[in-house]
Amino acid sequence: MNILRRAAHVTLTVAAIAVSAACSAEGTAPQTEAAQTRSAQTEAAQTPAARTPAAQATGLAPHAASRTARKAGKPKLAIADITPMGEKTERVGVGFPIIVTFDRAVRDRVAAESVLQVQAEKPVEGAWRWVSDRKVIYRTKTYWKPHQKVLFKALLSQIPGNEAAKDVSRRFAVGTANIAVVDTKKHVMKVRRDGKLAKTIPISAGRGGLVKNGVDVYLTTSGVHLAMGKKRVETMTSSWLGVTDPKDPLYYKLEIPWAVRISDSGEYVHQSAGDYQFLGKSNQSHGCVRATPAGAKWFYGISQRGDVVQVTGTKRKLDWRNGWSYWQLSWTQWKRGSALPAGAPAPSASPSPTSGGLEG
pLDDT tens, 102-117? Predict the structure, then answer.
């Protein structure tokens, strides 16, 4: 299995900035999914030591498994990356997707998708959607139930012609249900934790007024975002505008504290860099959601990847392909991206065994 090893920390590096970004963090060059997350660590049950590796993969007796492995040859399909990280590394929010990246283009999507399993302690309907020849994403119909474990399995050895592959599994830990609603008209962000209002934070969102290719890139995008990562301090510059000359009136380069990323186009929830008089009163940012120092620090502290941040009140709609904004598609639209025939059993039908930015 060609699983890539990466450093084990929850703070993510971020994905490529979209062309229509309202602002951007310094040094945000395009990166692969492998650069964002740790390697997929196999968490399958232990197999008796008397069995050979081939027997562990196939469940056959040692001699039969050995013959099967010789006949099968090298695996034709493996997994290069799984997002998010496992239960021992992070807790995730109730909107989190499971993102599986294969090591090569998948020729038979039906065969590959049919061996992917998702089992939750608190089951909810879900489906896979292919977004490229190598990448498939799992999303639920409604948000995950909080405070549970979810087990993902890829039984790659069951794909015809791929018997030599190793099966992979990963268990995720779902944490508190953090749901933030940003009202750009009332200039406030309300954060609920497990259904209870935890904090109301005065904010300032994108002011608008800079149109590029028919899009006002100074507006915060309205829609259901997911937290993708966070940084204690993020460097935000005007380079996304093509402005790199310090003498240009539009130039800026700022060190922004408590930055929680919510899209690929450079949108964050972060501490306002001054201009506190506008918080709760008007929209003045380049597209980010500015918050008070105390509010931003608190929000940063509770944030988990996959937390829901819903922005309302602007005319610029969030594209479902921008970051992890998969909840922008209706459930009917989402299911159309599956390779499996309509009416196939839901992958999560059974419970699991007990076990930069925009300068805002």
Answer: 999 999 999 999 999 9
pTM of the full predicted structure? 0.79
Q: Please name every residue paired with 310 in a beta bridge, in sequence order, or none if there are none.
A: 181, 224
Q: Domain 38-83+95-174 is in which class?
A: mainly beta
Distance between CA atoms of residues 271 and 289, nearest Å: 8
Domain parsing of the chain, residue ranges: 38-83+95-174, 178-325
Task: Return the active site residues.
Answer: 270, 288
Across 75-82, average pLDDT: 95
Contact 222, 344 (CB under 8 A): no
* Both tokens assigned to 350: 């059974």
- Residue type at position 267: E
- Contacts for 237-242: CB closer than 8 Å, 24+ residues apart: 237/24, 237/25, 237/26, 237/356, 237/359, 238/23, 238/359, 239/24, 239/26, 240/17, 240/21, 240/22, 240/23, 240/24, 240/266, 240/358, 241/23, 241/210
161 SS3 class: coil
Residue 87 in tokens:
């239960």
Q: Name the CATH code of domain 178-325 (choices 3.30.930.10, 3.40.50.300, 2.40.440.10, 2.60.40.10).
A: 2.40.440.10
- State phi, psi for 260 to the nearest 5 degrees: -110, 115
User: What DSSP string runs through 291-343?
Assistant: E-HHHHHHHHHH--TT-EEEEES-SSBPPTTSSS-GGGS-HHHHHTT-SSPTT
Please tell me the distance from the alpha carbon of residue 281 to that of residue 183, in angstroms, as a whole number. 12
CA distance linking residue 124 with residue 279, whole number of Å: 38
pLDDT tens profile 133-145: 999 999 999 999 9
Residue 259 in contact with residue 357, Cβ under 8 Å? yes
Judge whether 356 and 27 are in contact, CB under 8 Å: yes
